[in-house]
# Entry
Amino acid sequence: MIEGFFGAGATPRPLIELTLEFVDFPNVSLDATFLIDTGAFRTMIGPVEALRLQQDLRVPLTDLRAGGPSMGVGGFVPTRVTPARMALANEVVPLSIHIMEPVPPVSPIPCLLGRDILSQFVVHIDQSRSRVFLARPDEIEGITLASGVILR
Amino acid sequence: VQNNGPDPKLSVHGGKPTKHSREVHADYQASSQYLREHWEELLERHANRWVAIAKGKVFGVDDDVVALVDQLGHEGVADRAVVALMTREEPPRYLPPE
# Structure
């Protein structure tokens, strides 16, 4: 089970801190805070964290494989993609991580934890109790819901 | 609830997390916690500016996030820093490619 938190700011948003390692860059890891986003198809690193990552990669982000554009209200931002691994609940989850290019002016676009990862976990978001966590399905076996349904 | 830090099985390159990677993660967590606990104070003092927190304290404040992160890199703390724009506005939402 991995515990997250609600972030400060305009409205509380469910966040979780995670560590990524990059398969093609043996000495590079990135600690970052991800927004739990069930609307995102896949997991993506935002442009500010991309700037941080760039400091350690020693190669331009643009040398990585192009990953297609990320779409938003302000238009689109190109992404790069590279193989990575994420530590989650005693599991190592491989993924192709998309990285937004830090195209000026850089916006505070958050890193997103998308459905490629979330689909493997039970996602618990309880704002009334300030409680956020991800759990493996077998970790919550036996819990009885108010409806009487027993999770198996 | 367990710590979210580098797992002993996070072994893309073999072996356990190094002392360095554990330190980086602990520093990042400390900085993230500092930002949460001091959000309102930082917002009041540095509205609409970028703030970098490293090793659990304010490292720098700048209008230019690229310059701020470059400074973090020169000091060798980009991997453990938290960088945030101090604003009450909702962050822009962009979706990854499908």
Summary: The CA atoms of residues 21 and 27 of chain A lie 8 Å apart. Chain A touches chain B through 63 residues (CB under 8 Å). The two ends of chain A are 16 Å apart (CA to CA).
